[in-house]
Amino acid sequence: ERGDTYVILLPDFDTTEQFDSMRHILTQHLDILDSDTVQGRDGKYAYRFHSGVQVTPEQVRHLTSCEAAMVMAAVLPVLTNRNKKPQRFDSVTKWRQIAQEENKSLYEVALEYEEYASGWSREEVVRYMKEHVETYMQKRIFTLYEDESRLVINPFRTIYYKEWQKQSEKDGLTGSVIQKAIHYMHSAQAQMDQVLDVPGPMSNGGGYLYSVLTAVKEECHLSEEDVTRGLFIAAAIGATAYTRTNPTGEVIGCAGECGVCAAMTAAAVAEMFHATPEQVENAASMTLQSSIGWPCDPVPGGQGTPCTSRTLFIVTMSVVYASWAMMGSELIIPFHEVLDTADKVGRQLSGDLLCTGRGGLCATNAGRSCKETFCSTRECRTT
User: Would you call 167 exposed, middle or buried from its count of C-beta atoms within 10 A (0-12, 13-18, 19+)?
Assistant: First the structure.
C-alpha cells in the first residue's frame, strides 16, 4: 500500500453495490482523496479509501456501521493532500532543463519539487528538513561517540569504530574527509538504543549519506547551509530513483540500495561545492554505473558481509566521483538512463540474488557456515 495517505479498508462485502453509498458517506465527513474496490481470493470485496488527514477506525466504524473497518496508518512524513501538484520532473535532465529555462539553481527547483509534492510552503519544507530530518541524522552519526552506553551488542555484527580510529591514524592511507566519513559511518550502522534509523533508501542510508556530508563540511570548512542544499539535491535524486524504479535489493539488487544511496551522496557533495548542474548529474550517473548488477546477498551471521563493504563504497567512492565530475569530465549517460539500466539488469537477476539468503556470497562455503551458526543460535534462543 502507499505510505503517503491513511488507507481506510471496509472488508467482507459480497458485491460492489454499496461502494458508492459508502464513498458518499465518507466523503461528506472525511477528506477522501481517492477510492476503489479490491477483490480477494475468496471472492469477497473490500472498499478502499485514501485520506490525506489522520482518521481512526472508530470514526470510520461510526460513520459506516462497518465493524470490521480498518485504518492503515501513513508511514511517510509528508502526506498527500489536496494541495499536492503534479510532479515537476522525473529525470535529472528534465530537472536541469527547468532550472535553465527558469534561470534557477538546481536547489531552487528541488525546493519547488518538495513544495509541489507536499503542498507545504517553502518555509515549512526547509524547516522540516532542518528541524526533523537533519536532527535525526545528526543523532544517528554522533550518538556512538557521545553516549557509548547506547550501543546494543550484537555478536553477529561487530562495529570496528575504535579499531578504525587507531588504524587510520597509524597508516595515514586515507585523507581527512574519507577518514572522518568512515568514522561517522560506524555510528550510522551501529544498533543503538532509542536511536532511529534514517533510511535513504537502504536501512541506514540516510545516516551514511549524512556521514559524508558532515565530514565534507567539517574538513572542507563549509557551512550548515551547504549541507542543507546538499540534502535537498540528494532528496531529488532519490525521488527520481523512486519514480523510475523500485530501488530495493528485493527487486533490482544492491544497485537499488547502496548504488542509489551513493549516487544521492555524490550529487549532494558536488552541490555543496557549487558544481554545475551537469556536474551534479554526472556525479550521480558515474556512481550508479559502478553498482549495476550487484546482487543483494547479505550473509546471515556474517558480521555485516557484504553490506559493510558496500557501505564503505558509499562513503568513499561518492566523494571520489563527485570530485571527478567537478574536474570537468563529460556526462556521457544521463542519470535516468543509468537508472533504467540498473532496473532492467536488476530484474534479470536470479531470485536467489535478491535478498533471499540463498545466492551470491550466501552460497559460498563460508557464507553457508555463517548462516548455519546464525540459525542454530536463533533456534537455541527461542527454545
Answer: middle
Q: Are 373 and 301 in contact (CB under 8 A)?
A: yes
Q: Which residue in 60, 43, 61, 46 sits closest to 1, CA to CA?
A: 46
List Cα–Cα distances, 336 to 186, 281, 285, 342, in angstroms. 31, 10, 8, 10
The arrangement of strands across the sheet holding 45-51 comes to 32-39, 45-51, 6-13, 70-72
Euclidean distance between CA atoms 230 and 267, whole angstroms: 8
Q: How far apart are CA 159 and CA 164, in angstroms?
A: 9
Q: Give the residue among 297, 294, 241, 244 at the shortest CA–CA distance from 265.
A: 241
pLDDT in tens, 310-367: 999 999 999 999 999 999 999 999 999 999 999 999 999 999 999 999 999 999 999 9
Nearest alpha carbon to residue 59 among 4, 2, 6, 18: 6
Omega into 199 within 30° of 0, i.e. cis? no
Q: Which amino acid is at 114?
A: E
What is the DSSP secondary-structure string of 194-263?
T-----SSSTTHHHHHHHHHHHHHHHTT--HHHHHHHHHHHHHHHHHHHHHS--SHHHHGGGGTHHHHHH
As given in the structure block, the three cell numbers for residue 292 are: 549495476
- Provide the β-strand partners of residue 37: 47
CA 117 – CA 321 distance, rounded (Å): 29
Q: Which three cell numbers stand for residue 175?
A: 585523507
pTM: 0.89
What angle (nearest 5°) sits at the alpha carbon of residue 172, between those of residues 141 and 202? 30
Helix (H) or strand (E) holding 20: helix 19-29
Contact, 45 vs 37, CB < 8 A?
yes
Q: pLDDT per residue over 3-51, tens digit each?
A: 889 999 999 999 999 999 999 999 999 999 999 999 988 899 999 999 9
SS3 of residue 364 by DSSP: coil
